């Protein structure tokens, strides 16, 4: 899953990127509102962490422009302590949740997981597909109760397919959602990750739909 973090305070921005990357996300950073608006308008993010106090273009204006343009990705806004009017304005502008600074990183991670789950129509923190279970809280993946050892990119591919289980996902879509913007993307490597996953997952878990992409198959 790929996230945009729009935060102009360098230390916090780097802390967010490190924590989110450690949790298995691909992360892009923007340190001003104009860049954040452009990136969110052009790239297919699974969620956004948006500070309202951005330079050049404030976060509330960025959010309003996204929503006016039909951009529907879930947005978690960051507000200053006791700035209740910002929280109300942010929710009214189309934010899905808010967090007040300072905050605990664990709470931000939990709120993001919940937003991404709800967007994908998932109620539980554990995603299940037949014998496969992916715990979004711990990043642990099991098959019939046995833990699987996955690389970070294998995990990102599987996590995206688990959130879209039963749907056809193109190689291009996977490439857009598992790599950060500054990563040297190569859609051909998706086939490599799929091949490795097939060796680790129960047989038939990942179907190839010729000319369209891949689908995670969940037996009854």
TrEMBL record:
Domain OmpR/PhoB-type stretches: 124-218
Pfam families (alphabetical): Response_reg, Trans_reg_C
Regions recorded as binding DNA: 124-218
Spans traversing the lipid bilayer: none
Classification via InterPro entries: CheY-like_superfamily, OmpR/PhoB-type_DNA-bd, Sig_transdc_resp-reg_receiver, WalR-like, WH-like_DNA-bd_sf
PROSITE patterns hit by this protein: OMPR_PHOB, RESPONSE_REGULATORY
Keyword DNA-binding: yes
Keyword Transcription recorded: no
Full protein name: Response regulator transcription factor
Source organism (scientific name): Thauera sedimentorum
